[in-house]
Amino acid sequence: MRKITVIGTGYVGLVSGTCFAEIGNHVTCCDIDQTKINKLKQGIIPIYEPGLEETVARNVAEERLYFTTDIPSAIREADIIYIAVGTPMSVTGAADLRYVTEVAKTIGENLNAYKVIVNKSTVPVGTGRLVQRVVQSYLSDTTQTFDVVSNPEFLREGSALRDCMNMERAVIGATSDKAAQWIADLHAPFQTDILITSLESAEMIKYASNTFLATKISFINAVANICERVGADVTEVAKGMGMDSRIGSRFLQAGIGYGGSCFPKDTHALVHIADSVGYDFHLMKSVIRTNDEQREVVVEKVRQVLGPLKGRQLSVLGLAFKPNTDDMRDAPSLQIIPALLRKGARVKAFDPIASKEAVVHFGDKIEYCTRLEETIQGAEAILILTEWDEIKQLDLDRVKELVQAPVIIDGRNCFSLEEARAHGFIYHSIGRPVVE
Ligand code: NAD
Fold this sequence. Notes:
This protein is α/β, with parallel strands linked by helices and 436 residues long. The chain has two domains: 3-195, Rossmann fold (3-Layer(aba) Sandwich); 213-428, Rossmann fold. It is built from 18 helices and 14 strands. The chain has an eight-stranded mixed beta sheet, sandwiched between helices. β9 (313-317), α13 and β10 (346-350) form a beta-alpha-beta unit. α5 runs parallel beside α6 (127-138) and α11 (263-276) packs antiparallel against α12. The longest helix has 32 residues, at 199-230. It is elongated and about 75 Å long. The structure holds nicotinamide-adenine-dinucleotide (NAD). Residues 7-13, 30-33, 36, 71, 84-87, 99, 102-103, 121-122, 153, 155, 157, 261-262 line the site of nicotinamide-adenine-dinucleotide.
């Protein structure tokens, strides 16, 4: 059995490392963040991801999963090295590759036998070749050989473990048959479809997939904005569209736009990649613009209903970019709440998991509540930004007793129009008729 080292123990590295251990491999997950590794060694999972804690604990107990900050040793011991560090957006919109190149340098310095180096981070086309050059240039033992593979990750935060264990496909971009075979063998227990491509195609598949999904979201949001003006209901429209198997029903939920650590940065990165090779990707530029504008749509709805917002008491329900995660990176709430504050509103906010993370962004500018009822108490309007189950299951009769005015601005279409009407709410949602 081949030994695996995963460098970068964030959402992707921790989940995929755990899954490789779960199917029987010996896996070492490393990170430069000592606090993170200390927590993991104590069985504390630094991120919120359903099912992860138990699975990590089981694999640690069964001596298949290890954590360390000693990256050089972990490299020397491994047959397969996964790079799963962050590739955040730089000021130009391009992916920042500094962490990937740092890791490549460390790998080069510690390469003591043939190894397959696999890029799992989302990286621009050409990065596999860049890693190859960096590793080569830092080889301490120049007789050593290695191969670089691209094996992009498609998991979704909030269902990452399930997605990884039941992956729909594994894309393996390789320059050598041997390396492709090693990574294909590693994926055999997942019983998934395997697509072997060139390095460049694999890198492009990841960007093309994410940006296509972002395009679907911006498309339906644009359709929602038209629906509001022509009296159609976007949920009916999306349902009708989704019944066509060529279109499919997923990623057609109108709302306040996509967020998170991937779609915003990947859409910008692909525009940047296109620019760098002389192609004006104006379609993607419109997708990004539509997404940015969608956040303003919801602020405008609040203003339309309440008039000037100075001194008005608002309850914001949901802060994370989507349910079942504590990830606040590029969450719509990061633009919407400051816009409300700038207009003078007072904000009380609730999120089942992400409040701790939100403090980093909003400090004491808003009031954080630990219970939904406390958040809603005295509200002049409720604003829904994340469709957590407990928000969708709110008892609207009880809500009405607690609020100052029965107004809901729903950025996630959590309630049916009939429900809102039956409970006597003024209800503004996305792409659907207003209930007054
Ligand atoms: P993350 O920020 O959660 O984790 C990255 C980790 O890498 C951090 O713990 C950081 O300390 C560590 N790190 C940075 N430099 C390091 C170094 N030199 N040595 C060792 N560790 C180092 O990031 P993430 O969300 O896991 O994303 C990782 C990559 O996977 C990104 O390219 C991202 O686009 C891609 N991706 C993310 C998701 C997702 O849902 N989060 C899904 C698919 C792909």
